[in-house]
Each structure stands twice: as C-alpha cells, then as structure tokens.
Amino acid sequence: MKVLAIDTSNQPLSIALLEDQQLLATMTTNIQKNHSVTLMPLVEELFERANWQPQELDRVVVAQGPGSYTGLRIGVTTAKMLAYTLNKELVGVSSLEVLAGGFPETNKLVVPLFDARRENVFAGAYYIKAGKPEQVIDDQHISLTGLCELLQAYPQVVFMGKDCLQFKGQLLDRFSSEKISFAQKNFAYPQAYILGLLGEERKPVNIDHFVPRYLRLTQAETRWLKNHQETNHEPYVKKV
Amino acid sequence: MEKQRELVLAFESSCDETSVAIIENGHKILANIIATQINSHKRFGGVVPEVASRHHIEQVVGCLEDALNEAQVSYDDLNAVAVTYGPGLVGALLVGVAAAKAVAFAHNLPLVPVNHMAGHIYAARFVEPIIFPALALLVSGGHTELVYLAKPNSYEIIGETRDDAAGEAYDKVGRILGINYPAGKEIDRLAHQGQDTFNFPRAMIDEDNFDFSFSGLKSAFINTVHHADQLGKELNHADLAASFQQSVVDVLAHKMVKALRKYPVKQLILAGGVAANSGLRERIKSELQDFEDVSLLMAPVKLCGDNAAMIGAAGYIAWKAGIRADMSLNAEPSLEFPLKK
Ligand SMILES: [Zn+2]
User: Fold this and answer.
1) CB-side neighbour CA atoms (13 Å) of B287
2) Of the candidates B36, B57, B102, which has its C-beta nearest A212's C-beta?
3) Do B143 and B91 belong to one domain?
4) B15 and B31 fall within a common domain
5) How confident is the model at residue B2 (pLDDT cuts 50, 70, 90)?
6) CA distance B103 to chain A (A)
7) pLDDT band at B182; cut points 50, 70, 90
8) How confident is the model at residue B205 (pLDDT cuts 50, 70, 90)?
9) Can you cite a GO biological process for this protein (chain A) (predicted)?
10) Which of B18, B66, B95, B304 to mutate to test the interface with A (most CBs of A within 10 A)?
C-alpha cells in the first residue's frame, strides 16, 4: 500500500511517503512559515524523489486535529481533495495520537498536549501497548486545572509535545516529581512516518463528510448558543 | 473545422459562498455550483470568518462532485484549474487555494491564480465579449472601485472607496432599519416605495478624483434615525431607504460619468454584488444614453454575487495569457489591482 501522510496541525509540518509500512521519504520542518506556501511544494518534491505518480497512491492519511484551525484546514483540505480527486482512500488520525505514537513502550500514562492559550490545552491520554497508543482519556479542549484533575487517578504520567515545557512549572506545583515527567526533546515533534503507520491500519472514512477535529466551537457560536437553541433551523449552508 | 473546447475548473471561497464551476471556452457555463452560508452567518449579523472557513471545508468536495456530474466531464477533459487567491477572508481563501492545488497536482493541470475582483468583472463576459478599452464600476460588500481595462488581463484602479464599501454601508444601514443581514435586496425594494426626502450628503461628489466615501452617509443616516428616536418620532422607512439609495447611486453614477469623460472607453461594465441593485442598474443605463460610443455591459443579476463561474471566465483569459501559479500559491487577503499611473 502506498501512503501519503500529512501533519500540518501546528507549526511543525511533517509529510511522509510510505510503501507497505516502509518509509520512502519524509520531511519535517519547524519553521514559522505558512503551511499553505510550504506543504504542496514539499509533497511535489517527495513524489519526485520517490518517483511516484499521484495516481499510484492508495491512501492519504492526515492529522485531523486538534491544533491550529488554519493549519488543520490546510492539511485536511489538501488530504481530502487529493483522496477525492484521485479516488483513493482517506484516513484521519488524532494529532495528539501522532505524538503519542512516537513514544516507546511504557507503563506510564502518556499525555500529549498542545497549548490552546489562556491556560487551556488540547490534550488526550494514552497507554502505549505493543508499540501502539491506546486511548485512555479522550482528546479534548480543557483547562490545565481540569486536565490535572483528570490525571489525579493515574500513578505515573509523562507529558509530551513541545508545548508541555511551558506548563512544566505549573504541573510540578500540582504533582510530585515522582508522579510526573516530561518526554525528552526528541519526542516533541510529530513525525508523519508514525502518522502513516497509524493510519494504515484504520478504516477509510467518508471523504465528503471529513472535517478537522477542532474540539472547540467558534467563539461566535458559543456566544450564540447561550441565548439560542440549535433546533428546527434552516440548513446553515444551502446550494442555490 | 469545429473549435476545440477548452475547459477551466474554477474554485471560489473568498467569503461566505463555496463555489465550483466548469466553464467552456471562457464564456459558457457547464456547471456553477454555489453553496451559500447566509443562513449560518445571519445568526451573527454578519460573516464570521472562522465559521465561514469551517463551512468551506465541509462543502468543497461536494461542490466539486456536483460540478463534475452536472458538466458531464472528467479530469482528462480539463485544461486548467483556476482559483480565487484574494482579496477576501484569509482562512476562507485558503480552503479554495488548497483544494485547487490538490486537484492541479493530482491531474498535472496548470494552476491559474485569479483576483476575485477580476472575477466579478468577468461575470459580465457571460452576456457578451468584453470590448477594450473598458471601464468597470465594481460595487460589492467589500469593494467600490472604478477599474480601467486597457486590454485583456490588465486591470488598473482609477478610483476607489476611501472608507466603507457601498455594500458595507447597505448592511450597516439595514441593521438600523431592523433588516436582516444581508440587507441590500430589501433596501432596494423599500427604496422603490419611497422618496428621497432626507437629502443625505453626497460625499466627495465635487472633488476632482474618482474616489468614493460612504462612511459620512452612513453616519448621517444613523444620526437622523437616532435624533428622531430621541424625539419619539417614527420616520418612514421607505423614504429613509430611498434617500440612502439615492445618495449612493448619485455618487456612483456621478463619478462614473466623470471617469468616462476622462477615459474614452468602448464599454462600461457594471459588476459586483451591489450591481444586482435595480436602482443602480436603472440609473447607470440612463446615464449611458449620453455616451453613444460606449456600450453597457451589466453582469447578469444571478452572477453578481460570489460564484466560481466568474472566476472560471477570468481564469480562462489569464490561462490563455500564460499566467500560472506554482504549488506555493498562497492566499492574499488584501490583494488589489495596481493604481493607474
Ligand atoms: Zn465578491
């Protein structure tokens, strides 16, 4: 199976080409540059390196979120459009799980997180079993305090992702250094090869309905829902 | 010999419409699928960019699928992929740009970047060919400008709004009158039932340039209504609408006439969302009677709003002229035509 894997969910951008679970080519950047400018030229380049034609592809795997809304949309639009237009399979994988998937076997609870601003995070929790992440706590948008409460019950927790270091002080205020630890730098960035491996095992999705997992409503919708109900409305989007 | 057909697939997602079209030879619509988000943004009284971007990504594949089915063409039949890359809402534009790039890459098709405002002008191409040099009066929710077209693919601004676009003023005034967003159509309807009794200011009408300003008109309108409110007086909404519309139309028509005197053109093109306004259409038609050598080309009412057909028409001309983007094409939210020297 020939797989293209794309992760543009945060500032790091990672893409990979896999053939039967072998890595053919990959590129990861962590440059403050628009993914819109960077993504497709890199895809083009990797296809050239691997000497692939777009039609040869079997599946596109994309990090579906959470993450930066704009970043997610660039990756997800590209992935769903490639899959649709080439009539290939599409699979989405949690952006947090991509990080967890890079972590070695451990008895600790693995908690990848992204900063979501104002003391909030996007986070989930996984056990790594037989080299694969198994979800224990759903990916969610949650306050740091709320996350800490969810983690009370677990004896050993390791935090992952480059953003977890900025919360290090606050986390160590709440938990003992025996209970929590922080993954080393080499696990801080998503690797599209891992994304591709995870995605290869999943069932393909309905391409038309596929959207990013933002895990958060827009502010406008949240405000609107305070005074309104989501029932019996006309379709929000209509073909005319 | 039969002319070979040339097909452009076009994407438009600059604001609150997701649209995909397939255009034959630059002027025949094989498909023009438009998914409008108006019902969603009505909740908020105007377009919310993040909500718009989310809807675009939900819609874009379905629109492409419908367009291909309706046009009965396959990717092998296509010659180019055109896409709006600006101006507009950056998050919204990015969905169309990413989608167009993916299709162009997958099928090895040339990618043609299109300025949304050039698209609005080329909506008129579905009525008749454009004759150069031409002058376009572009009036929409985000833009109000006079554009000089010396030749195909040449767009130069000779005048533009210094503050609000005309369509923006319509929406703000609509809010005061309790009319739901978007307010243009309803104000136009009301205006036809009223009289210009308030005589609102015609900003910059006597200035020696081709620029516009609508924020003063908007303020005058708001002050008039608030003042009456304080006195407990109820003003006639039809007269308010008529007075507002008359002021907008007067300024637009006046500057257009001035521009036609300075720049002898063969054609005047009226386009943009507000170009669907019947008051404006009637007025421009009557002004043009004084210019025997200038033909009038108005974008069809149903193509005045945002749609991908117009992007396909402008994209066809750009493709013929060899304009191409590579895979690094980005959205340019503040893209503008150059000023005429
Ligand atoms: Zn427009």
Assistant:
1) 22
2) B57
3) no
4) yes
5) low
6) 6
7) confident
8) confident
9) tRNA threonylcarbamoyladenosine modification
10) B95
Which residues constitute the domain of residue B222?
A: 131-298
Relative orientation angle of helices A69-86 and A35-50, to the nearest 10 degrees: 40
Neighbours of B332 (CB within 10 A): 18
Report how far residue B252's alpha carbon sits from residue A103's, in angstroms, rounded to the nearest whole number.
Answer: 64
- B116 shares its domain with B230: no
Q: For residues B192 and B190, give the distance between their C-alpha atoms in angstroms, rounded to a whole number.
A: 5
Q: Is B23 found in the same domain as B167?
A: no
> Tell me, what CATH number does B140's domain have?
3.30.420.40
Same domain, A119 and A82: no
β-strand partners of B83: B11, B113
Statement to judge: residues B202 and B262 lie in one domain: yes
Same domain, B107 and B159: no
Instruction: Determine contact, residues A129/A148, Cβ cutoff 8 Å.
Output: no
Ligand 1 center from residue B89 Cα (angstroms): 11
Confirm whether B341 is domain-assigned: no
Q: Which residues in chain A touch residue B34, judged by CB atoms under 8 angstroms apart? A: 239-240
Q: Does A221 sit within 8 Å of B94, measured CB to CB?
A: no
Domain containing A144 — which CATH number? Answer: 3.30.420.40
Give the gap in angstroms from C-alpha A75 to the nearest C-alpha of chain B.
8
Q: Quick one: A133 and A170 in the same domain?
A: yes
Residues B218 and B251 occupy one common structural domain: yes
Q: State what percent of residues in chain B have pLDDT above 90.
A: 92
Q: Is the pLDDT of residue B180 over 90?
A: no
Nearest Cα of chain B lies from the Cα of A45 at a distance, in angstroms, of 10
Which pTM was predicted?
A: 0.95
* B258 Cα to the center of ligand 1, angstroms: 25
pLDDT tens profile B88-116:
999 999 999 999 999 999 999 999 999 99
Q: Report the domain count for chain B.
A: 2
Residues 9 through 48 of chain B touching chain A, CB cutoff 8 Å: 18, 33-40, 43-44, 48
Element containing residue A224 per DSSP (H, E): helix A219-227
Q: Whole-number mean pLDDT of chain B? A: 95
DSSP letters of B271-292? ESGGGG-HHHHHHHHHHGGG-T
Average pLDDT over residues A41-52: 98
The yes-or-no verdict on residue B262 having pLDDT over 90 is yes
